[in-house]
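Example 4.3 (complexes with small molecules)
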Amino acid sequence: MIAGNWKMYRGPDPRALREALGDLPHVVAPPFTRLSDCVAAGLTTYAQNVHWESEGAFTGEVSSPMLQELGVTGAIVGHSERRQYFGETDLGVARRAHAALQAGLGVIACVGETGEQRESGDTETVLRVQVESIGDLCGTHENLVIAYEPVWAIGTGKTATPEMAQEAHAFIKSLLDVPVLYGGSAKPENAHELLSQPAVDGALVGGASLDIESFVAICRIHS
Ligand code: PEP
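Answer. The structure with phosphoenolpyruvate bound is encoded below.
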């Protein structure tokens, strides 16, 4: 799977992107306001987050049934920006993932260490806690995918080396046997090397997914 996280950017024209992608498998995760346009254009569309309840007094949140009503087929959960800026916890992330899977959505659950944690030798400990909390609630659900996104590589232009990615992905798979995507400054120039690692099953692409040519190029490399 190659998934594009548009974050809080309007993103490319969905119809132009759909046309450029042709038959290439893809997922796009636009902001909430663009979900319908992406679905209408025929793109495989995920939300960037989802709540664990189906409805209730949770201002600012959106539930799985609400997404499904729009034709959205999955959601990202636990992106490091959600954890870092909005206080999302391992348990909350696991609950979001579990509810979405139960509702029939696909889930991309993000995990990853900060630069400081890597430097202090804590990468595996951090990954273990994050992955096990998702695994404890969700198990190896067939619609669950983990995205390994080292926080120090997101939007920084710094990419994990293919060896670092392989090592982290293999470790994650030893904890929870599901597909693992790599995320962190992935672009057409480095996608081939990263995607050719045996434990790298695809990519979650931020910045480069906003550019039609770059996103399509990465999808093509993976296909
Ligand atoms: C992301 O936001 O999930 C991401 C990986 O961003 P970028 O590709 O810009 O580093």
